From TrEMBL:
Keywords: Membrane, Transmembrane, Transmembrane helix. It comes from the Bacteria. The chain crosses the membrane at residues 6-22, 29-48, 68-91, 115-134, 140-159, 166-183, 212-232, 253-272, 329-351, 363-380, 386-406. It comes from Mucilaginibacter lappiensis. This is Oligosaccharide repeat unit polymerase.
Length: 425
């Protein structure tokens, strides 16, 4: 595909997404269009000489050139365009499935205050102390559960209408402490996993014209968080000045080292179907299979192209350090046809999920949509579909239980009010 045509499509998608945001107050197409722009930015940074192709030796003869990069870029643009316009097609204005309100949300949140505080303390202690004595994999997965409790703590602060200055200062200090604890070079999503929902909640009612500005600022801040954490993966913070950290983070942003989606997809593009057969849905099936321990099912299918390639060709296992995007996963499933089919399916699923989150009359919808946007970052970025879904579930399992309990609480309260009003009449 001609590059001018690709850029025209990408820019057109961005304009359409902004108009849809103005009209429907929905940010999902905006996220997709902006994601595609970042993909193209990585390619432009390579062309301008700012960045370099990923340099990993997997024992595989992989090529990195612009011919393959353009082919992959075309596939991502194709998948993004299909998903975005199908989402717009499937989108329906949310229907109120639950006649709740902030009164009920506040009442229920404060009734669970003790559980939330205990959960926050337990997971914070777990991060600070137990992380040094338990296997890395377990800690890596388990400690993200603090995301839900930090979000719920935020709801407590919202509905605890205290005029006591000491109480307010306590909450501010507590959130600063949570930010310090959760910011980790090894697990960058954890900080964003609670920060984005809270930021979205606070700006949920902002006018669309201003919201676009806030979203763009949010993207820049997200990139800064990723870049700074990426720098701290290789250097200790006590060995750097603040100026050096800012400089190195900016340089990392300039070369688009944290959005090397093109590079990752190029690897998969050369593996399927020449070295490995298409998966035909196995990548999605692995979402269900991943939690099953291998000691319980010794012949459980391997997940991911590199593990399957290593098993087939006898290469050594190593840690993968690239992000082929969710469209790389679609390509591994069925090639170009997979990119098209799964983009349509995912658009339908995203539209249904977004409508459900917006169905709450209370401001809880702001938290839920914020969680959805935060979850889409690892889901669309890394290409490890099963691992990303597991990460998201472990991050928000407490929020799932909270929403489930809240719905039952509201139904019970509405039923109680109905009978009281009926008796009074």
């Amino acid at each position: 595909m001609d590059r001018i045509l690709v850029y025209f499509i990408v820019i057109t998608n961005f304009i359409v997404a902004i108009r849809f945001l103005h009209k429907k107050k929905c940010e999902i197409p905006f996220f997709l269009a902006l994601f595609n722009i970042m993909v193209e930015y990585r390619l432009i940074s390579l062309q301008l000489g700012y960045g370099h192709w990923v340099n990993f030796d997997y024992g595989i003869s992989l090529k990195f050139n612009y011919e393959i990069a353009y082919a992959v870029s075309d596939l991502i643009a194709l998948g993004t365009t299909i998903m975005m316009y199908c989402f717009i097609f499937f989108y329906r204005p949310p229907k109120r499935l639950l006649n709740d309100s902030d009164y009920y949300l506040g009442k229920y949140t404060l009734s669970k205050k003790s559980y939330i505080v205990v959960g926050l303390i337990v997971f914070s202690i777990f991060q600070l102390t137990l992380g040094k004595s338990i296997s890395d994999n377990f800690v890596f997965l388990a400690k993200v559960g603090n995301n839900s409790f930090i979000i719920l703590l935020f709801l407590i602060t919202i509905f605890t209408k205290s005029k006591n200055r000491a109480t307010k200062i306590f909450f501010y200090v507590l959130f600063i402490a949570m930010a310090y604890i959760s910011y980790s070079p090894r697990l960058r999503f954890q900080f964003l996993g609670w920060m984005i929902p809270i930021a979205y909640y606070l700006t949920r009612d902002v006018k669309s014209s201003r919201k676009v500005t806030f979203l763009l600022i949010g993207i820049v801040l997200t990139l800064i968080v990723f870049s700074s954490a990426g720098v701290l993966r290789n250097k200790k913070i006590d060995e750097m000045s603040f100026k050096e950290l800012v400089s190195d983070s900016f340089q990392r942003m300039l070369i688009a080292d944290d959005i090397n989606f093109i590079d990752g997809f190029m690897m998969m593009y050369q593996i399927y179907p020449d070295y490995l057969d298409y998966d035909y849905g196995k990548e999605h099936l692995d979402v269900v299979l991943r939690p099953i321990p291998r000691w319980l099912w010794k012949d459980k299918p391997l997940a991911g192209w590199f593990q399957n390639y290593s098993a087939k060709y006898g290469t050594s296992m190593t840690t993968i350090g690239f992000s082929p995007t969710v469209w790389g996963v679609f390509y591994a499933e069925m090639g170009v046809i997979g990119v098209i089919i799964f983009s349509v399916i995912w658009a339908w699923w995203l539209a249904r999920l977004y409508s459900y989150f917006r169905s709450f009359a209370s401001s809880l919808w702001g938290i839920l949509v914020g969680i959805m946007l935060a979850a889409m970052i690892p889901l669309f970025r890394s290409g490890d579909l099963a691992g990303d879904v597991l990460l998201i579930f472990l991050s928000y399992w407490a929020m799932i239980l909270f929403v489930r309990g809240y719905k039952k609480f509201v139904v019970k309260e509405l039923r109680k009010e109905f009978y009281l009003n009926k008796a009074a009449a």
